[in-house]
Amino acid sequence: MKITDITGKVTLHNGIEMPYLGLGVYKSKDGNEVVKAIHNALEAGYRLIDTASFYNNEEGVGEAIKTSSVARDQIFVTTKVWNDDQGYENTLKAFEVSRSKLNLDYIDLYLIHWPVPDVLEGTWRALEKLYKDGKVKAIGVSNCLTHQLETIKKSGSIKPMVLQNEFHPKLLQQDLIDYCKKENIQYQAWSPLMRGRILENEVIKEIANKYNKSVAQIIIRWDLQKGVLTIPKSVHKQRIIENASVFDFTLTDEEISTIDLLDNDERTGAHPDHFMEHFNKN
């Protein structure tokens, strides 16, 4: 992946260009909070906004895009179908609800939020239909492992263009990244800053001091140099700007390897094979 500046993009296997840095809006409150965050991000140069029906802020995301000075075709919008709405017909209905809330003619990227057993193949067929009908520019999955990707690959006619997974220095899953590279599926990180838990890490602090950068900036740069797209979330203007200020330095191969060694398979979210139990508890 060639890293240039905040306007940089990657080309997905269907030819669609996708920004490699974006704003995540998980837990951003619908209404003024999410609108303001997106306006600040767009003013800072961000061109990718990642939401989901589960986040309950699609209306605010749509309002932010509508009232922005940036043209719609310059903004890459991702949303996701939630677990309770999966299955072929339900997914088609859920998509229309999301599109209506976002008030958009099309969605740039539509993802399966979690791989719900028994309906995964049907949900993916619905995404393929939305893609073939031109309602979405690209389709993909979130929170999947290799075996779930293989299920989709064998049952569907189109490979996912994107896999969005939890990814940070404590959770690499390098085998999965390597699989995606081989299959030409673009990897994208959610929770790249480990919900803030990684920000006091002494190993990364030492690297950050060398470059006069924050730990967050080092991690975001590490993401990109690993070939992983990234969507750090924030509703604070200065933090949004800071998270995008990662294009004036380059980590060495040794520093990349040092950060890689922090991996201990630690998750902040559910495991893709056990998420049903996780959400049933909560």
Automatic annotation (TrEMBL):
The keyword NADP applies. The active site is at 55 (proton donor). PROSITE patterns: ALDOKETO_REDUCTASE_1 (PS00798), ALDOKETO_REDUCTASE_3 (PS00063). Keywords: NADP, Oxidoreductase. Residues 27-262 form the NADP-dependent oxidoreductase domain. Gene3D superfamilies: NADP-dependent oxidoreductase domain. SUPFAM superfamilies: NAD(P)-linked oxidoreductase (SSF51430). Coiled coil: none annotated. Pfam families: Aldo_ket_red. Substrate binds at residue 113. It comes from the Bacteria. One of its GO terms (molecular function) is oxidoreductase activity, acting on the CH-OH group of donors, NAD or NADP as acceptor. The keyword Oxidoreductase applies. The record marks 80 as: Lowers pKa of active site Tyr. PANTHER family: 2,5-DIKETO-D-GLUCONIC ACID REDUCTASE, NADP-DEPENDENT OXIDOREDUCTASE DOMAIN-CONTAINING PROTEIN. Belongs to the aldo/keto reductase family. This is Aldo/keto reductase.
